[in-house]
Design a protein that fits this description.
127 residues, alpha+beta, 5-stranded antiparallel sheet, 5 strands, elongated
Length: 127
């Protein structure tokens, strides 16, 4: 039980750090523009499972940028348009979504807190 408790505790810390980093990027990427999905390709990770990566094109102040992301968005076919959120001070810093519009965003925080609390309880039970 001690190992499971410690593992949940560490997972909770990782989730909360992930939430904080995502929230900070969300704050930086406050401006928006329309982008176009220009490429979808299949990727394979080290354990053999496959996923998809997406390349988006967007323009800010007459300069075209490309953004690669593994995040699934509402644009799923090449040529689809979507909102790209970017950092007004550094337009190359962008993301194809805004965390506040995603329910998963708050779920990460709650899962992190729950994991820490359950981990602490399990550690005390193991003692």
């Amino acid at each position: 039980m001690g190992i499971a408790g410690f593992s949940l505790f560490v997972l909770g810390i990782i989730l909360i750090i992930s939430y904080a980093v995502s929230k900070k990027k969300n704050a930086r990427c406050s401006a928006q523009t329309q982008g176009t999905l220009i490429d979808v390709f299949e990727t394979e990770n080290s354990n053999g499972s496959t996923g998809h990566s997406f390349t988006y094109s967007y323009t800010v102040d007459g300069v075209e940028y490309k953004l690669k992301s593994n995040a699934y968005t509402e644009a799923s076919n090449v040529g689809d348009t979507l909102t790209i959120w970017y950092n007004p001070k550094k337009p190359k810093d962008a993301q194809p979504f805004h965390y506040e519009t995603m329910k998963v965003y708050k779920a990460i925080l709650f899962a992190g807190i729950a994991s820490i609390l359950i981990g602490i309880v399990l550690c005390f039970i193991a003692l």
